From TrEMBL:
It comes from the Bacteria. One of its GO terms (cellular component) is membrane. It holds the Pfam family FA_desaturase. Its main location: membrane. It is found in: Membrane. Belongs to the fatty acid desaturase type 2 family. It is a multi-pass membrane protein. GO terms for biological process: fatty acid metabolic process. This is Stearoyl-CoA desaturase.
């Protein structure tokens, strides 16, 4: 396998520096969160704004970037496509063309050479797995290699709207940080309310969502339950189900990637699937690929 067929060169230095900034600065904010919250600097307004923006941007990734744009789990009209692309961009996990190309490449080579973020690329010893966990969780984000979009995302490259959303990623990054601060300032009618909302609903919210998403790449390919037949080490990790909006029911997803619902058993809470169901009921999306009992039974591992 030639790496040239998978990669499209290196990330430019300005973009690479920006990636480092958006990894390091929000993480430092998260480390500072506990002492800052100890007696001051956190209000119910901050909590509410952080929860609302977390939910909105997380669903932008799970429903939009992942289930729709990457896997085509349903169909949507132009306005919904653009709305989902913008919402996903405000999670600050990279421009849409990069995100989708990386994730399609991940599925094409899952847990094998060519996978951009498998924790199993370096072996199975304790040291190799520690290195693999770091790579899957964060190390690959800091790599300058860019996935070949012409190979893995030609449909989005051909879409003028998606190219525009991709090019305006910096704008949506600014909006996702400034808007919560503006809301906090207006609700409390104070500059301090704007500052604390920027910290909690901006920086801390972004970094928490980053690490939840990355945990699906790392933790959900290392430990957990595997009730369905997949050709890789994808697993279900139930403690992440709520924060990931259902993405941590990862085993079924890799067994049936285009399925709109990842948590298919009755007790598996899948918030993203419920949102897609609501969109379908409202007539905003159509042709949803829901799981069927025969399909699920066929994918189940024999016990």
């Amino acid at each position: 396998m030639s790496p040239k067929t998978l990669l499209a060169g290196k990330r430019g230095l300005p973009a690479h520096v920006t990636v480092y900034l958006f990894v390091i600065v929000p993480f430092l904010a998260l480390l500072a969160a506990v002492p800052i919250a100890w007696g001051w600097g956190l209000s119910w307004v901050d909590v509410a704004l952080a929860a609302a923006w977390y939910t909105f941007t997380c669903l932008g990734v799970t429903v939009g970037f992942h289930r729709y744009f990457t896997h085509g789990a349903f169909r949507a009209g132009r306005r919904m496509r653009v709305a989902l692309a913008v919402a996903g961009s405000m999670a600050v996990q990279g421009p849409i063309l990069h995100w989708v190309a990386d994730h399609r490449r991940h599925h094409a080579f899952s847990d094998r050479e060519g996978d951009p973020h498998s924790p199993w690329l370096f072996g199975t010893s304790a040291a190799a797995l520690a290195r693999g966990f770091w790579h899957a969780h964060l190390g690959w984000v800091l790599d300058r290699d860019l996935t070949n979009q012409e190979r893995f995302a030609p449909d989005l490259l051909a879409d003028r709207d998606m190219r525009l959303v991709h090019r305006t990623f910096g704008l949506w990054t600014a909006v996702t940080l400034v808007a919560p601060a503006a809301m906090g300032g207006l609700i409390t009618w104070s500059w301090w309310g704007a500052v604390t909302a920027f910290f909690w609903a901006g920086l801390v919210r972004v970094t928490l969502l980053h690490h939840v998403t990355r945990s699906v790449n790392s933790v959900c390919h290392m430990v957990g339950e595997r009730p369905f037949a997949a050709r890789d080490r994808s697993a279900n990790v139930w403690p992440l189900a709520i924060l990931s909006m259902g993405e941590s029911w990862h085993n079924l997803h890799h067994a049936d990637p285009t399925c709109a619902r990842h948590g298919v058993r009755p007790w598996e809470i899948d918030i993203s699937a419920r949102v897609i169901w609501l969109f379908e009921r409202a007539g905003w999306v159509r042709d949803v690929r829901w799981p069927t009992p025969p399909r699920v039974a066929k994918l189940r591992v024999a016990t």
